[in-house]
């Protein structure tokens, strides 16, 4: 009975850090050898990091990645390694290197290139047209890359017809709500449909607005998990797979036999014979199947990981946040402390004549609970001086949004002054609901280098705050209970100027993420005039969203790469 031991190296890799990524890959190859592993697999484009985007137009970048692959080769002795890299032939390819016996044995080029949402691979890569199988002592292992496995036929189905027992799929699959479950269900379907085992290794970490969740796993031909790694953490998942049992299962099922009988090989299939003897194991591996995380915990961990990596990978150390005593700034500050530590988070209170006593108390209590240093700048005198300058020009004009925005812009200036003086990056605190309808001040509360909650609806902000308080109650209860307000004029409430957030958020979701028309949305039980008003606000504020800081993608359609609406646009509902 042959037992193949496979390791999935779920690593946090950094785009462009070819040297650091390579060192980490070598480190985990050594770990795999210590554990009597036969095959160790690393994520998609592990050497370059993912997505490298227009770095791929730099020939030196591609060449450095190829040199790094050569540096890995001497460590490949007594083991097989699958490593993601950029291959260079007549064109460049998203590729998997198959390394054995201290050399590059074979290369697989990704067949299916995603070109939707955040993916833009056709801009850079040529697609592969070959299917690669490894023959190890008569057992066959297929190699695929990320998008390849999302298609029910080529190449996974062809691999099964060609007799593989196991497919190793290397990934850089970013997180959004529901993605972990969707990915698992899809792979389990591929395994059961094709009567094969599949090992799926994914990277983790934050890269600009993307967060990679890891959640690597392996499944048997019946869809049961053989192993399942952690989410949003580095992990090293090792499992044993008995290959003869897979072949026996295939013999008892007519599906593959019937497919083989009608199969006319048109695909180019490369079968690589690997000079490698499967190890006789002297150690046993404990089964590792991590439990699924609830959705709210997934989102919270994604925000923490995305913020931490954005700050540290960009060379920053500390962040500064305007604390209003409201729910958004409270949650942002809490996530920042969880991501960076209290010593690296600074809070700024900037009360005006409209700021309530309760808001000041809530901001101070939050800061005390989190243990962060705060500064207080009262802005009334600054505001009055601005108005003294502007009054001769504004004479005869009523108070309106101009005076409200002026307060927000004063606060933005103060935050940016601290950022410039001390090198602290400003975290914007706006959420997706506000960014959708433009309920934010350009160059005011929108200033910042990163927007943690940019893709989080207001209703979800409350859910996340309640989740975090269930761990330890740091956000004051009154913040969760009081009506949200910008406090830029007397008795101001968000919902008086917009709609109740549960209604607003649902309309935004149906328009932005489902692409429904006003009439279709109205049929879901919403007032048609309210729907049209919300849609007008969304359409009219595209110019503002383009100038907002980037933030962490959480939904299937985040503003940015997922949403590419023209600013000049005469198509209106």
UniProtKB/TrEMBL annotation:
<feature type="active site" description="Proton acceptor; for glutaminase activity">
    <location>
        <position position="44"/>
    </location>
</feature>
<keyword id="KW-0547">Nucleotide-binding</keyword>
<dbReference type="InterPro" id="IPR003694">
    <property type="entry name" value="NAD_synthase"/>
</dbReference>
<feature type="binding site">
    <location>
        <position position="173"/>
    </location>
    <ligand>
        <name>L-glutamine</name>
    </ligand>
</feature>
<feature type="binding site">
    <location>
        <position position="405"/>
    </location>
    <ligand>
        <name>deamido-NAD(+)</name>
    </ligand>
</feature>
<dbReference type="Pfam" id="PF00795">
    <property type="entry name" value="CN_hydrolase"/>
</dbReference>
<feature type="active site" description="For glutaminase activity">
    <location>
        <position position="110"/>
    </location>
</feature>
<dbReference type="InterPro" id="IPR014729">
    <property type="entry name" value="Rossmann-like_a/b/a_fold"/>
</dbReference>
<comment type="pathway">
    <text>Cofactor biosynthesis; NAD(+) biosynthesis; NAD(+) from deamido-NAD(+) (L-Gln route): step 1/1.</text>
</comment>
<feature type="binding site">
    <location>
        <position position="544"/>
    </location>
    <ligand>
        <name>deamido-NAD(+)</name>
    </ligand>
</feature>
<dbReference type="Pfam" id="PF02540">
    <property type="entry name" value="NAD_synthase"/>
</dbReference>
<keyword id="KW-0067">ATP-binding</keyword>
<feature type="domain" description="CN hydrolase">
    <location>
        <begin position="4"/>
        <end position="243"/>
    </location>
</feature>
<comment type="similarity">
    <text>Belongs to the NAD synthetase family.</text>
</comment>
<keyword id="KW-0436">Ligase</keyword>
<protein>
    <recommendedName>
        <fullName>Glutamine-dependent NAD(+) synthetase</fullName>
        <ecNumber>6.3.5.1</ecNumber>
    </recommendedName>
</protein>
<dbReference type="GO" id="GO:0003952">
    <property type="term" value="F:NAD+ synthase (glutamine-hydrolyzing) activity"/>
</dbReference>
<dbReference type="GO" id="GO:0009435">
    <property type="term" value="P:NAD+ biosynthetic process"/>
</dbReference>
<feature type="binding site">
    <location>
        <position position="116"/>
    </location>
    <ligand>
        <name>L-glutamine</name>
    </ligand>
</feature>
<feature type="binding site">
    <location>
        <position position="434"/>
    </location>
    <ligand>
        <name>deamido-NAD(+)</name>
    </ligand>
</feature>
<feature type="active site" description="Nucleophile; for glutaminase activity">
    <location>
        <position position="146"/>
    </location>
</feature>
<dbReference type="InterPro" id="IPR003010">
    <property type="entry name" value="C-N_Hydrolase"/>
</dbReference>
<comment type="function">
    <text>Catalyzes the ATP-dependent amidation of deamido-NAD to form NAD. Uses L-glutamine as a nitrogen source.</text>
</comment>
<dbReference type="GO" id="GO:0004359">
    <property type="term" value="F:glutaminase activity"/>
</dbReference>
<feature type="binding site">
    <location>
        <begin position="322"/>
        <end position="329"/>
    </location>
    <ligand>
        <name>ATP</name>
    </ligand>
</feature>
<feature type="binding site">
    <location>
        <position position="179"/>
    </location>
    <ligand>
        <name>L-glutamine</name>
    </ligand>
</feature>
<keyword id="KW-0520">NAD</keyword>
<dbReference type="GO" id="GO:0005524">
    <property type="term" value="F:ATP binding"/>
</dbReference>
<dbReference type="GO" id="GO:0005737">
    <property type="term" value="C:cytoplasm"/>
</dbReference>
<dbReference type="InterPro" id="IPR022310">
    <property type="entry name" value="NAD/GMP_synthase"/>
</dbReference>
<comment type="similarity">
    <text>In the C-terminal section; belongs to the NAD synthetase family.</text>
</comment>
<dbReference type="GO" id="GO:0008795">
    <property type="term" value="F:NAD+ synthase activity"/>
</dbReference>
<dbReference type="InterPro" id="IPR014445">
    <property type="entry name" value="Gln-dep_NAD_synthase"/>
</dbReference>
<dbReference type="InterPro" id="IPR036526">
    <property type="entry name" value="C-N_Hydrolase_sf"/>
</dbReference>
<feature type="binding site">
    <location>
        <position position="429"/>
    </location>
    <ligand>
        <name>ATP</name>
    </ligand>
</feature>
């Amino acid at each position: 009975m042959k037992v193949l031991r496979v390791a999935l190296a779920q690593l946090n890799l950094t785009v462009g850090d070819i040297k650091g990524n390579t060192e980490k890959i070598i480190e985990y190859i050594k770990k795999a050898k210590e554990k009597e592993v036969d095959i160790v697999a690393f994520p998609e484009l592990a050497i370059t990091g993912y997505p490298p985007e227009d770095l791929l137009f730099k020939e030196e970048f591609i060449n450095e990645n190829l040199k790094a692959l050569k540096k890995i080769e001497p460590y490949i002795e007594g083991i097989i390694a699958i490593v993601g890299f950029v291959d260079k032939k007549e064109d460049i390819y998203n590729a998997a290197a198959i390394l054995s016996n201290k050399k590059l044995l074979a290369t697989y080029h990704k067949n299916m290139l995603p070109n939707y949402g955040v993916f833009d691979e056709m801009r850079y890569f040529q697609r592969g047209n070959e299917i690669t199988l490894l023959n190890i002592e008569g057992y066959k292992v297929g190699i695929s890359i990320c998008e390849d496995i999302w298609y029910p036929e080529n190449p996974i189905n062809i691999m099964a017809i060609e007799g593989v027992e196991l497919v190793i799929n290397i990934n850089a699959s970013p997180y959004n709500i529901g993605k972990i479950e969707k990915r698992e269900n899809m792979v389990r379907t591929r395994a059961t449909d094709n009567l094969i085992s599949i090992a799926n290794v994914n990277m983790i970490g934050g890269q600009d607005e993307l967060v990679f969740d890891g959640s690597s796993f392996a499944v048997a031909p019946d869809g049961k998990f053989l192993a399942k790694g952690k989410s949003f953490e580095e992990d090293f998942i090792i499992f044993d797979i008995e290959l003869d049992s897979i072949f026996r299962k295939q013999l008892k099922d007519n599906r593959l036999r019937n497919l083989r009988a009608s199969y006319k090989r048109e695909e180019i299939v490369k079968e690589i014979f690997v000079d490698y003897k499967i190890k006789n194991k002297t150690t046993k591996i404990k089964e590792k199947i991590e439990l699924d995380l609830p959705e709210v915990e997934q989102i919270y961990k994604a925000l923490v990981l995305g913020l931490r990596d954005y700050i540290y990978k960009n060379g920053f150390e500390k962040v500064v946040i305007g604390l209003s005593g409201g729910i958004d700034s409270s949650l942002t500050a809490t996530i920042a402390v969880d991501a960076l530590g209290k010593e690296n988070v600074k809070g700024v209170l900037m009360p005006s004549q409209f700021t309530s006593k309760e808001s000041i108390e809530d901001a101070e209590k939050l800061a005390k609970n989190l243990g962060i240093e705060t500064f207080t700048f009262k802005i009334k005198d600054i505001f009055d001086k601005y108005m003294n300058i502007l009054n001769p020009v504004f004479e005869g004009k009523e108070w309106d949004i101009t005076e409200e925005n002026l307060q927000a812009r004063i606060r933005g200036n103060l935050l940016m002054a601290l950022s410039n003086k001390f090198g602290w990056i400003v975290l914007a605190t706006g959420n997706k609901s506000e960014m959708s309808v433009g309920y934010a001040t350009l160059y005011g509360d929108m200033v910042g280098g990163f927007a943690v909650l940019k893709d989080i609806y207001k209703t979800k902000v409350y859910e996340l705050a309640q989740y975090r308080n269930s761990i330890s109650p740091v956000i004051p209860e009154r913040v969760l209970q009081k009506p949200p307000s910008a406090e830029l004029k007397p008795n101001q409430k968000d919902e008086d100027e917009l709609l109740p957030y549960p209604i607003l958020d649902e309309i935004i979701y149906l328009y932005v993420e489902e692409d429904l028309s006003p009439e279709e949305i109205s049929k879901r039980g919403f007032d048609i005039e309210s729907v049209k008003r919300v849609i007008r606000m969304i359409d009219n504020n595209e110019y503002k969203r383009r100038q907002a800081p980037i933030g962490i993608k959480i939904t299937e359609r985040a503003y940015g790469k997922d949403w590419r609406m023209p600013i000049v646009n005469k198509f209106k509902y």
